[in-house]
């Protein structure tokens, strides 16, 4: 069963289920993307910061060359990293990413975080990660979000990207951007799982015609290997009794329940897996519906528990 689509506010359609490219190993990323396309995936969510865009692009282009898919059938997403927020650096960063992916355009380009680090030249370190040109010390630039957004709007004007949006934004910042934007954000990507449901933010974004994409659908699982202390001390969602009980009732896996919970809320999902069987299972999660009772039980799991928080980087108040 092919995944359904959500319609962006500019008429473009984004698949409801895609493959997240965060932490895809460089040595296997091209093969994983190729395999995912073979299985029916059409949405690929990447970023400069993931450090694997050349390999992701290799997998995409191999699939196109082999006739598995046409470019226009794919929905390729990437993100602008924090070091490139100044207007004069946005297009440079974007073109670097486009070149790495070996594509002519992107379907969606997001501001990764509402954080402006000091610019780092590509030849000095790429992707820069948390590096700001001074060892492990953080340095920032005074770049307002609207300046960065104007540069993204120019990318749309030039036909380099079809849609633009934001990631890791709170409601007030999103509202402010909408007021100032010439091109309205088409998508908002947020951490989203039963321990962090963000109901009000989801409702607000959807009321504005902005499609929400949820990352880290499996909660702490993505962060345990990063030695995240909060994640390490949290019951994995795959072992949560509410989730396992609902999964048993529907004859599905806990992963499928978590993913269907999101898509049934109108939220696109981008789970990652290195297992071909799980890739297939993750893609086909829209052939059953959770009940009102299921939703009510999952609603009780909300702890406002965030695993990806820039406050832990350098006391950056993104979510305070």
UniProtKB/TrEMBL annotation:
Write out the entry's keywords from A to Z.
Carbohydrate metabolism, Oxidoreductase
Which residues of this protein are catalytic? 50
A Pfam family per the record: Aldo_ket_red
Q: Where does the source fall among the domains of life?
A: Eukaryota
- What InterPro entries does the entry give? AKR, Aldo/ket_reductase_CS, NAD(P)_OxRdtase_dom_sf, NADP_OxRdtase_dom
Q: Which residues bind substrate?
A: 112
Which stretches make up the NADP-dependent oxidoreductase domain?
A: 17-302
- Transmembrane annotation, as ranges: none
Q: Where is this site: Lowers pKa of active site Tyr?
A: 79
The GO molecular function terms of this record are: oxidoreductase activity, acting on the CH-OH group of donors, NAD or NADP as acceptor
Its family remark reads: Belongs to the aldo/keto reductase family.
Q: Which PANTHER family match?
A: ALDO/KETO REDUCTASE (PTHR11732)
Report the protein name in the record.
NADP-dependent oxidoreductase domain-containing protein
Annotated source species: Pachysolen tannophilus NRRL Y-2460
């Amino acid at each position: 069963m092919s995944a359904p689509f959500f319609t962006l506010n500019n008429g473009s359609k984004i698949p409801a289920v895609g493959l997240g490219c965060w932490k895809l190993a460089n040595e296997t990323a091209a093969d994983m993307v190729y395999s995912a396309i073979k299985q029916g995936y059409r949405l690929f969510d990447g970023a400069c910061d993931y450090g694997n865009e050349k390999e992701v692009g290799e997998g995409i282009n191999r699939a196109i060359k082999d006739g598995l898919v046409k470019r226009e059938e794919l929905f390729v997403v990437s993100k602008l990293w924090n070091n490139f927020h100044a207007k004069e650096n946005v297009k440079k960063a974007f073109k670097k990413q486009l070149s790495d992916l070996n594509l002519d355009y992107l379907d969606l380009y997001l501001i990764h975080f509402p954080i402006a680090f000091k610019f780092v030249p590509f030849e000095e370190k790429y992707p820069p990660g948390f590096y700001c040109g001074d060892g492990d010390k953080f340095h920032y630039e005074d770049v307002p979000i609207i300046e960065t957004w104007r540069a993204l709007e120019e990318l749309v004007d030039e036909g380099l990207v079809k849609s633009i949006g934001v990631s890791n934004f709170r409601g007030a910042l999103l509202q402010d951007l909408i007021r100032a934007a010439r091109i309205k954000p088409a998508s908002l990507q947020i951490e989203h799982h039963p321990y962090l449901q963000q109901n009000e933010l989801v409702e607000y974004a959807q009321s504005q015609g902005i499609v929400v994409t949820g990352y880290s659908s499996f909660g702490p699982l993505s962060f345990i290997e990063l030695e995240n202390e909060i994640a390490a001390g949290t019951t994995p969602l795959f072992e949560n009794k509410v989730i396992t009980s609902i999964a048993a009732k529907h004859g599905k896996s806990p992963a499928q329940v978590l993913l269907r919970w999101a898509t049934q809320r109108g939220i696109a999902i981008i789970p990652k897996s290195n297992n071909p069987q799980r890739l297939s299972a993750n893609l086909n999660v829209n052939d059953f519906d959770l009940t009102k009772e299921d939703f009510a039980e999952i609603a009780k799991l909300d702890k406002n528990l965030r695993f990806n928080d820039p406050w832990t980087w350098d006391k950056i108040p993104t979510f305070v």
